[in-house]
Every structure is written in C-alpha cells, then in structure tokens.
Amino acid sequence: GLGDVYKRQIKFYVGMGDLFIAQPNTIAPPNDPNAVLDEYVLAWDEDGFRLSQNPSDDYRILALGDSFTEAPNVGTPWTDILASQSGLSVRNMGFRGYGPVEEALVMQEYEANTTADVVIIAFFEGNDISNAQSYVWQYTPENPYELPHIARQAMREDPRQVLLWTFEAPQGDNFKYPVMLDMNGTPAPMAFLEGYIWNNIVSMEDLEASRPLEMTRQSWRDIQAVAGDACVILAYLPSKETIYLPYVADETAMGSIFDNPMHLTLSDVGFLSVVDDPDGSYEKWATQRMVIRDTIQKYATIDGITFVDLIPHFEERANAGDVLFYVYDTHPNQAGHDLIGSVLAETLATNPCLEEQP
C-alpha cells in the first residue's frame, strides 16, 4: 500500500492562481502568466491522499484538512516539513474543498482504531465554518459525497483537474488587483479573495449560536472518538487577507476593497448568511478579524483539543517583509508551508500530551 497509484509532473505557474477564477476580471493580467513558481511531482496513494515523501506502514501523525493541507500547488506540503523536522511519519489526509464534516468522515473511513500518536486538524479560517454548513446542501442524490479514492478518479481522467485550471486572460482594462503592500518598507503586490474578508466579519454571539459551529464541534467529537488515546491538535491556519490586508499601502485601494462591504449574520434557521453591511469598513474588519479565531480556540479548549494558532507566526514574518502566500492564489507558497510545518514540529517537541510517547 506504500507505492503511489498515480503521479503527475506539475509546473505551477503564475497564471494558475485560483483568484483569476474566483474573482474573474478583477485582477490585471500578470506580466508573464507562464512564469513557473514551482515544479514538482504530485503522487497519491491508493486511498486518494497525497503520498508522503517518506511513506510508512505505521504513521505516527495524521493530518486532516482541505487544500491548505493537501497542498497541490507546492512541492513540499507542511506535512512533509513536519515529518522531516520532527522525525515522525506524517500521513497527509487533506483533500481540496473539504470542511470539518468531510474530515471527520475521512477519519472514520480510513483510520478507524488508529495507532497514531497525534491527529492534527488543520482548520482554515477562510472557509471552514462556511464549508461546515454547506455540507448540508452541497451533496445530493445526483451529486453524492464521494470518498477521496473515488473523487480522485476524475482527476486522473482530466489532467486539468490535477491543478483545477489553466490561465485565461482577464477581460477589461479597469482592474482592482493587485494592490501594493508596504510591509515596513518592503513593497509587494497582492490580490485578495474578498469572500475571505467578509467571512471573518461576524459577532461571537452569532457564531456561537450557529449550526455550523455545532457541526464543527461534532466533527471534532467524531474525530476524537476514532483517535482514541492519540493527542488531537487543532492547527489554526490564517487566510492571507487576515495577514496582509493591514499592509495595503494606498487608501484609495483600501477604499475600493471595502466599496461593497458585507458580513456574516445568523439566519432564522441557525445558518450564517453573507449580507450587505451598511456599517462595513476596514476599521470594523480590523476590530472583528479575530472573532472566529477566538471562538474556535475557546471551544477547542473546552472540547479537550490542543489549540495551535499560526496567526502570530505569520504576522511576525509579514512584519519582516516576507510574502508567505502566492500573489494570485489563496494558498500559502512554499515559504508558508515551511512555516506551518516548523511551528507544528516545535509544538510537538514541547507538548505535554506527547511526553509519554516514544
């Protein structure tokens, strides 16, 4: 079961950034959309998960997550960085588009009665709450949930699906992005996904009363039930909007980003809806941008899960002028994955719940 069952040579280039698809015709075409950002081999195991650089018959760490964990657009995902720095084998069980509910289903299907010492739930603040609630209506009899080894078949049959898309030139001549950042004297261009801005503007009262938070906590309980005696850790992964929006240098550009502000509010049936926000502004976002983080930390702690916050680590590096995400994509670049893996390796080296582990 250690041999890869599917592999593909990848050139990840500038024009593959998902923001060209997610926000069409808002981003100026890059000077060279065919400039290669990374070149590597993607390989999947028989269960449909990205194959570790050093596969094992007995993984000591399991990593659950979405595309921030699967990491199809970098050569070395944070799971492999963690493995190399900790000396412990890590199974990357991330799958693009997943939320908390699917991650619990993956744990139940593939790792029942696991012998791993550690289970890491990688929580991405940009969309994991919305993915929890969208699970309710995303899957239908016509479009059922499929386990990773089934879902991966489509990617084998359609080469475009390995990295989802190819570059299509934006239309028009009045583009909103990229904006220029000024990170304490270090300039850098950056494009943002505005949905990840609005998804972070919510009151703690609405979030605590919502069905998606309860669904998220239930997914944790389901994972813990399978994990048994393993130490369960929640790694809180920031969006690039949280990290880099404060560094937008031009007031006009910032005003343009917030020209049609929105926020999350609790609906009559307990879901969170994105609606127009008459009081929306950068200042309101800056005040509320840690509500989801604080709420997830509160309930992870209540539920007996070790909480690891990556935000201050990303902020420290951004403050020093480092760009840890792709300019035209929502995902971390290799430097971002290096940071996540390193922080988690340091956590495991000092975590008291692992003291009795070999």
Overview of the molecule:
- With 358 residues, the chain is α/β, with parallel strands linked by helices.
- The protein is built from 16 helices and 11 strands.
- The longest helix is centred in the middle third of the chain and has 17 residues, at 211-227.
- The two termini are 25 Å apart.
- The model has no long low-confidence stretch (mean pLDDT 92).
Helix/strand structural class: alpha/beta
Strand order of the largest sheet: 4-3-5-8-11
The mean pLDDT is 92
Low-confidence stretches: none
Q: Strand count, sense and closure of the main sheet?
A: 5 strands, parallel
Count the DSSP helices.
Answer: 16
Give Rg in angstroms: 20 Å
Distance between the termini: 25 Å
Estimate the helix proportion, in percent.
25-40%
Topology of this protein?
Layout: E1 6-13, H1 19-22, E2 36-44, E3 61-65, H2 67-70, H3 78-86, E4 90-94, H4 100-110, E5 118-124, H5 128-138, H6 148-157, H7 160-163, E6 179-183, E7 186-190, H8 194-198, H9 204-208, H10 211-227, E8 231-237, H11 240-244, H12 251-257, E9 262-266, E10 272-276, H13 282-288, H14 291-302, E11 306-309, H15 311-319, H16 334-350
Parallel strand pairs: 3-4, 3-5, 5-8, 8-11
Antiparallel strand pairs: 1-2, 6-7, 9-10
Helix pairs in contact: 3-16, 4-10, 5-10
